[in-house]
Design a protein that fits this description.
This protein is an alpha+beta fold and 492 residues long. 47% of the residues lie in helices and 10% in strands. The chain has three domains: 41-198, no CATH class; 220-284, no CATH class; 293-465 and 476-491, no CATH class. The model is unreliable at 305-314, 328-343 and 456-492 (pLDDT under 50).
Length: 492
């Protein structure tokens, strides 16, 4: 490293933008191209994490510079065109990409606390996008003070939540900073969202001229989820058929065809749905039950037609008008995880989870329980914590939802001394236990969807940072999303 760069790195004096960017570029030029072959696995992961963090900070600076250039009309002054057009024309970016850079920079620039967190690297660019879009989606009556308070809390939660988790938390935080207005505003907001979704709905079939048709569209959440559930059920049926066929080919010593991608399999499922509907309009079983959209709601709220219904997948809310329609069409089943009509413990009578157990798992786990995974319940296996071959029971307290990939990671070995990942249930919360070679103390990992956010109704000026932010919380069910008293199960 040359003397000037070494001096810059050892100095705390702020640099002009041009000098700082030149220094970063020069340092990247000095990254060794060889000699990394013998690096340890942990060291390689540390390098990767550091590169991702650096990319996030550079992206934040890019957004700040874009916002400042737009605000100063730099593009018009230098070339007579907007900054986004100048980027598109000189940096080999599409018009859409250039506009996105400027737009994201402007949105973040409106919130100084968020902008500073992005520049420091504590909030990634994707998290920043989730925060700014969530702030824009707040009810119409939200003041700038409310938005500032929500933004501040979301910046704190960015230490433990990914972009999807931040989007889901924004509405709850707003209810805390403005509890008097939030209840009515949320109901009105949901109704307005529903009406807008209906107005904007469309479906297009566009032949490509190459033997295929491009399908695109926009549907309200509930209708889209019903279609996705049905297509996923047929896709699962096709996957099982292919697995059986592959096994027969392997036994015969023949090569097996390449498996389709998840997206291609879902497309196959949609096509199979259409074909089956043409014949008899019956959907196959998926995970022990017909495709079902489950809505959880407290009994008193249902009685009062309050707007507190939640779709288990993908986690969006329902307005009261749609809830009333859903309740008219659906049967009500107990979802207190023990309804007499649907046993949740079949012992050793069956290895596979029954439909009732599968519904209860969906309500409890809400998807793959392995931390960091966002696979929905329909794509998950019901994994026995104590294996079936070891005498394990097929019951709710011995099962957990995991996707096929993580099922292979946590599946117990016949070797009792094997050092590998495992899952346990503590206080109704799935916890992933790392192997000893990764963590000698084997501290549990908890998926962010089970972590309490510690949100309570407070005045707009009283939000304080949570102690221990960023650490995995102890098992606690006080604030985690949990099944309500009744569930309306609308069978598609």
């Amino acid at each position: 490293m040359d003397t000037r760069l070494a001096a810059l790195m050892g100095s705390s004096t702020p640099l002009p933008v041009a000098d700082a960017l030149a220094a970063v570029s020069r340092i990247l030029d000095l990254v060794e191209r060889h000699g990394r072959e013998t690096a340890a696995a942990r060291q390689r992961l540390e390098w990767l994490k550091a590169a991702v963090a650096l990319e996030s900070r550079v992206s934040a600076l890019k957004g700040v510079l874009a916002a400042e250039a737009q605000q100063a009309h730099a593009g018009e002054g230098a070339a007579g065109i907007p900054a986004s057009s100048l980027l598109a024309g000189t940096m080999f970016m599409s018009r859409k990409e250039a506009l996105a850079v400027v737009r994201q920079g402007e949105q973040v620039h409106q919130h100084p606390e968020l902008e500073q967190a992005c520049l420091q690297g504590s909030v990634s660019s994707k998290q920043a996008q989730a925060i700014t879009s969530s702030l824009e989606a707040l009810p119409e009556g939200a003041t700038e003070q409310h938005k500032s308070q929500v933004a501040g809390k979301l910046v704190e939660l960015a230490k433990v939540f990914d972009p999807a988790g931040l989007r889901g938390a924004a509405g709850q935080i707003y209810e805390c900073v403005n509890p008097e207005y939030a209840a009515k505003a949320r109901a009105d907001h949901l109704e307005a969202q529903r009406e807008q979704a209906i107005r904007e709905r469309y479906l297009k079939f566009e032949p490509t001229g190459r033997g295929s048709t491009r399908i695109s569209g926009l549907l309200p959440t509930l209708e889209a989820e019903q279609i996705r559930k049905l297509a996923a059920a047929y896709a699962a049926k096709l996957r099982r058929a292919q697995e059986n066929n592959d096994e027969q080919l392997r036994q015969a010593g023949l090569p097996t065809p390449q498996s389709p991608s998840p997206a291609a399999r879902l497309a196959d499922g949609l096509a199979a749905l259409a074909a089956a509907h043409s014949l008899h309009a019956e959907a196959p079983e998926n995970g022990g039950d017909r495709p079902t959209v489950i809505v959880t709601i407290e009994y008193q709220d249902l009685k009062n037609l309050a707007a507190k219904a939640r779709l288990i997948e993908p986690g969006e809310n329902l307005p009261a008008s749609q809830l009333r329609q859903l309740c008219c069409q659906a049967g009500l089943i107990p979802a207190v995880l023990g309804g007499q009509s649907e046993p949740l413990d079949v012992g050793r009578a069956s290895r596979l989870a029954t439909g009732a157990i599968r519904k209860a798992l969906t309500l409890r786990d809400q998807g793959c329980a392995f931390p960091g995974c966002d696979q929905p319940p329909a794509e998950c296996h019901a994994h026995h914590l104590n294996p079936w071959w070891n005498g394990g029971q097929t019951s709710l307290d011995n099962l957990v939802l995991v996707c096929p990939h993580h099922h292979g990671i946590v599946e117990p070995s016949h070797d009792p001394t094997a050092d590998r990942w495992a899952i346990q249930i503590r206080d109704g919360i799935p916890q992933a236990i790392p192997p000893r070679h990764l963590d000698p103390q084997q501290k549990p990992w908890i998926h962010q969807r089970y972590k309490p956010m510690g949100l309570t109704a407070v005045s707009p000026n009283s939000i304080q940072p949570e102690s221990g932010a960023g650490r995995a919380p102890e098992a606690n069910t006080a604030n985690r999303p949990r099944p309500a008293g009744l569930a309306a199960a609308a069978a598609a």
